Structure formats: structure tokens, C-alpha cells
Amino acid sequence: MGGNAPAEREPTCSTLIVAPVRQGAPKMNIGLIGYGRMGQAVERVAVARGHHIAGIVRADTPTLERERVAQDADALIDFSRADAVPAHVALALQAGKPLVIGTTGWDMQREAIAQQVHAARGSVLYAPNFSIAVQLFLQHAVNLAAQLLALEGWDMAIEEIHHRGKADAPSGTARALAQRLQRALTAPREAVYPVPATSRLPDHQVAVGVLRLGNEFGTHRLLLDGPYDWIEITHRAKSRDGFAYGAVRAAEWLRGRRGFFALEEILPEILAHREEH
Ligand SMILES: NC(=O)c1ccc[n+]([C@@H]2O[C@H](COP(=O)([O-])OP(=O)(O)OC[C@H]3O[C@@H](n4cnc5c(N)ncnc54)[C@H](OP(=O)(O)O)[C@@H]3O)[C@@H](O)[C@H]2O)c1
Predict the structure, then answer these.
(1) Among 21, 50, 105, 188, which is least packed by CB within 10 angstroms?
(2) Which of 80, 134, 177, 239 has most ligand 1 atoms within 8 Å of CB, for mutation?
(3) Which domains does the chain have, with CATH numbers?
(4) Residue 277 is among the residues annotated as catalytic for this protein
């Protein structure tokens, strides 16, 4: 563990049901970058799966300590701040360690960072939402929309709700849903946030609604309105543990691989891998 004073503990809001890694599968030393709500959830899940925490990097952790954590870790998991992500990528590349990034809000730099990782033969996996159920939700929501919007008279909107402390809006998951819809629809619709209250939204745009409320862990909804039917497809996180679980599974998968990956690409492998109960 890092030498800094421990942060206030985040209470877990659900019973942690996590199978340990399969017998014989390698246990890892995991370095945590960011020790807020998500960093603490990752620690709980990683330890429950039998891994060790190599150290913790916080906002005020000095460079030498950051480098020590990176050296001691088999993999690093970052849930920190968008503006710190490039430095964390550089830390992982310099130490030659795989990095799982859960931090959102840095999408504008994604292409440049992916190129940097490829050039350095590094190993990075990013998902704006590490919930495996959310990845399946996204697939199904996009398929549903693509089929319904091919019919006449259908409209759609995206809605996301998160806790008051969330720094970015719309959420990375709402952005990912909007991007995937853009690619899947025959007549693409540009996502609009915030939705102007005083002007009419043209048909080629899709409204993204954002609510910030209490301690909400994360709700995403695709609303589909047709001439005769209304369909909503919703994912609601019951705690942060599902995001943490996906991030730890991603770190286990990433070990020994090189490249810049997205969770959706490796989902079939994660789903095919049976966990012991
Ligand atoms: N991908 C997903 O599945 C998923 C799920 C939930 C959240 N998220 C994203 O994950 C990020 C963190 O969320 P959270 O709810 O855990 O936020 P949080 O509770 O505010 O925690 C953020 C942590 O990052 C630390 N930090 C800030 N700058 C840092 C730096 N330069 N180096 C190291 N640590 C630094 C902060 O340290 P101090 O306390 O010392 O300031 C704090 O502990 C956000 O971008 C959020 O949107 C992603």
C-alpha cells in the first residue's frame, strides 16, 4: 500500500459477490491510481478475487512513489481525473506495465493516446463503463434502435442519471451510446447536449438528457417513441462494484497482451470464460 494517509472509506452498498480467480490462475499485484469512490471499490473486488494491492497513487503522491507503485505492480487500474490520464499513460508506458483506464471525460485525446500506446508497444484497455451488463445493454439498445428507426415515425432520446459528485456530463457511457447509434443508424442522428429549451430540435438530432441526483450510481436509458408504441431500455447500477469487477477482469485479461483495447472488443472472451462459484 502507498505511504499516504488512508482516504475515508466508501461504504459498499451491495453484498459483494465475487468469485476468486480460478485455481492456478495467476494472482496479480495491482496498483490503484485514484482512491476515491471507484478506487476503493476496485480494491474490494481485487482483494476478493485474491489479488494484492501493490500501492495507491493519489493526486498528491510524489513522482518517485508513483514510479515505485508502477514498478511493483503487474497491472495499474486508473479511476482518477480526466486531465491526469495522459500522465498516467506515460507512467504505465515508462514502467512497461498494463494499464486499465476507467476514468472518463478524456475522449478528445483517445486517438492520440491510442497511437502513443501502439508506438511504445504498450498495453492499455479503456472503457467509459466497465459494467459487463452495460456493455450488453449498449449492444441491445443499439440493435433495437437501428431496427425501429428504419420504420417511419420513430424518434429516440438518451437519458443518464448520476450522483451529484460526477465531474463530467454527459457521462462517458451516454457518449458511447450516442456514438454507436451514429454508426448503426441508416440516417445518423447527431447527439445534442444540453438540449436548447427555446428552439425546435431537428429530426437529424437526438436529445441527451442529464440529471444529477443524490448518490445515484449510474442509470442509462434509451427512449424510443413510435407512432403506436413506446419502448424504454434501461440499465441501472445497484452499486459501484459492477464497474470495479469489470475493471479487475479487464486487468486479468490484459496481462501479457500489447495494444490499445476497448472492453467491448474483449467482451466475448470475458463472457466465454466461466467463473467458479
Ligand atoms: N469506467 C467506469 O466504469 C466508471 C465507473 C464509475 C466512475 N468512472 C469514472 O472514474 C473516475 C473517478 O470516479 P470516482 O467516482 O472514483 O471519483 P472520485 O471519488 O472523485 O475519486 C477520484 C480520485 O482520483 C484522485 N486523483 C485526482 N487526480 C489524481 C492524480 N493526478 N493522480 C492520482 N489520483 C488522482 C483523487 O484523489 P484526491 O482525493 O487526492 O483528490 C480521488 O481519490 C471519473 O472519471 C468517473 O467518471 C468510470
Answers:
(1) 188
(2) 80
(3) 29-130+240-272 (3.40.50.720), 132-236 (3.30.360.10)
(4) no
